[in-house]
Amino acid sequence: MTQLRQNLATKEWVIIATERARRPDDFIHSGHGPAHDVPELDAHCPFCPGNEEDELEALRLPETGPWEVRIVRNLYPAVAPEGMLVRDFAGVAREMSGIGYHEILVESRLHNETLALMTPAAVTSVFRALVERGREIAQDRRIEMIVIFKNHGHSAGASLLHPHTQIVALPIVPNDVRVRADEARRYYDQQGQCVFCDVLGHELASQTRIVCETDHFVALVPYAAAGPFNTWIMPRRHTASFFGITEVELEDLGGIVQTMLRKLYEGLYNPDYNFVVRTAPTRDGGVDYLHWYITLVPRLAQAAGFELGSGIFINVTLPEACAEFLRKTGVVDGL
Amino acid sequence: MTQLRQNLATKEWVIIATERARRPDDFIHSGHGPAHDVPELDAHCPFCPGNEEDELEALRLPETGPWEVRIVRNLYPAVAPEGMLVRDFAGVAREMSGIGYHEILVESRLHNETLALMTPAAVTSVFRALVERGREIAQDRRIEMIVIFKNHGHSAGASLLHPHTQIVALPIVPNDVRVRADEARRYYDQQGQCVFCDVLGHELASQTRIVCETDHFVALVPYAAAGPFNTWIMPRRHTASFFGITEVELEDLGGIVQTMLRKLYEGLYNPDYNFVVRTAPTRDGGVDYLHWYITLVPRLAQAAGFELGSGIFINVTLPEACAEFLRKTGVVDGL
After folding, report:
1. Residue of B nearest to A21 (CA)
2. Residue A286: Cβ within 10 Å count
3. What digits encode the pLDDT tens for the residues A188-209?
4. Chain B residue with minimal CA distance to A168?
5. Substitution target from A194, A308, A318 for chain B, most B beta carbons within 10 A
6. Residue B251 CB burial class (10 angstroms; 0-12, 13-18, ≥19)
């Protein structure tokens, strides 16, 4: 018999289909192999050194000398900062102007680099730039939500190979974010505790779904993981907003993100993946009931009509088995 | 500048990215071409005549003589009816047994048939079988939600070519369904009207997004369509549950579904698509604030990190332009 599991924090159900269960080993060759098998420099790549369009630049680190990471405006933005924020609601026609920011963080000078193979310090630089730019954008009072995400590989939605992460700042709180926040607030009202702190406590006590730990972060496969090898990287310290991260946490974060990506890279042969920073809306940075974390989703399953109709995902692997596989995958934790 | 549009019924936002806008014509060759270019019979197909496993059968029409449509149990079910419905909630571990029904409706005896090319009467037979089987399943008091959906083509999640639709009956109301129902109830509480009836009224008055109409149904591209050529097929009569459909509506439904699928088939060269019947939870069939409809989603866009992180979709086409394209695509409405 299959099993339905509910995520304590979001109250969302998933189906763990043990009858068609696949072992984690079945996914070993899901990826595309060595990332470095293409040239370091591509003359046609807009993110490669030499092709910088300076008028698009929003931030570079370091500020002098050759850049290590750059943030540039997206040439085809989903939202843009120029213009007035206008709302126009009339019957079924409810619209707002597409005000916001849509920017790209270029993670490396090298065209064929990938976070999994970078040093922890270089990964920390990526996150430091995201935090710095996010804090700047949040000063714009029109912005209500900053979404940070990465698409790695074609099936994960990446159209350019050069390693990059995206920032989209929106003038609304998306419904999904609001629904999750409402659920977390209900839990807080009833239990007097942040639900994510409780989840972390339960997981650390049981240890069955923990992949690795550092001083400031814990990586785990959630109890109700929606797909194979989905993982959360959670700060131990309660903080609603990613942009409230401290410098010592930032330095630690690069290590655990690199470790987790390296485990996927080696264990699954460089699979396509998305990651998303789940963080509080910009004006809710101090709340007691939200807790930021990174959700990491290798692209190993396909959403189809059932997911569209129900919002429920079918996971063909056991989260505990995925955690064990990732724990054993040969990299030193926190390297 | 791009535009944010909000769906009046669900309050979900989409981004209409007019700056990277593509014309509907750009999608003309998105599909796979003629469906009939494979044999009518495949000896290895479990759904072809001659390969029936009678112990899996749940329903066949007609009951005597050669079947036209059959409903069979899924060999690898996500949920199954045998066993006790057990709930076990302890801290982060919240589980239920996977009780339910997961069945396949085989839409035709022909391996290479497709709804778009069938007669309206044959499409009506498909929906009649779904209604009949759904009403039977709803008698099982453990069932709270029946999800009916179709995956057409590989990128839409179909693993078998033989034309089929799926039924999944669940012992829970999925969160997505609950959130939509709550939103619709709020509208009803405030306006004293079903929001879907209001949407339909607005759309019929403006006519800019209507694709075609029959006596009992209206097909339209929603104002806040999440992707290119997304359409809704809505009954004119307020009914919360698909399973409350009347015989005269059923006879009409086959025609408009076939017309819409034929328009996609001809206009976009047989694209992959999903459809989902959005209907009330089994115990809410009589409520005033929900209204069943079919949502039809050609697979022309890819969800990536942004959609995962925000739940917001970026539509690169104007809904009004998609409606106009579909209106003009050369089939007689209601044929």
Report:
1. B76
2. 11
3. 999 999 999 999 999 999 999 9
4. B306
5. A308
6. middle
Q: In what order do the strands lie in the sheet with B3-6?
A: A87-90, A93-97, B3-6, B13-16, B313-315
Which of B8, B150, B311 minimises the CB distance to A92?
B8
Backbone angles phi, psi at B90, to 5 degrees: -145, 100
What ipTM was estimated for this complex?
Answer: 0.94
What is the Cα–Cα distance from B115 to B129, expressed in whole angstroms? Answer: 14
pTM, 2 dp: 0.95
Residues of A in contact with B17 (CB under 8 A): 76, 78, 98
Half-sphere exposure of A5 toward its Cβ, with a 13 Å CA cutoff?
25
The DSSP symbol for A285 reads T
Query: Which residues on B lie below 8 Å from A306 (Cβ)?
Result: 78, 147, 149, 166, 168
Q: How far apart are CA B7 and CA B111, in angstroms?
A: 38
Q: Does A208 touch chain B (CB under 8 A)?
A: no
pLDDT tens column, A145-183 = 999 999 999 999 999 999 999 999 999 999 999 999 999
Q: What are the backbone dihedrals phi and psi of residue B215, each rounded to the nearest 5 degrees, phi first? A: -60, -40
Q: Which of B13, B93, B174 sits opposite A174 (nearest CB)?
A: B13
Angle between helices B247-268 and B120-137 (to 10 degrees): 120
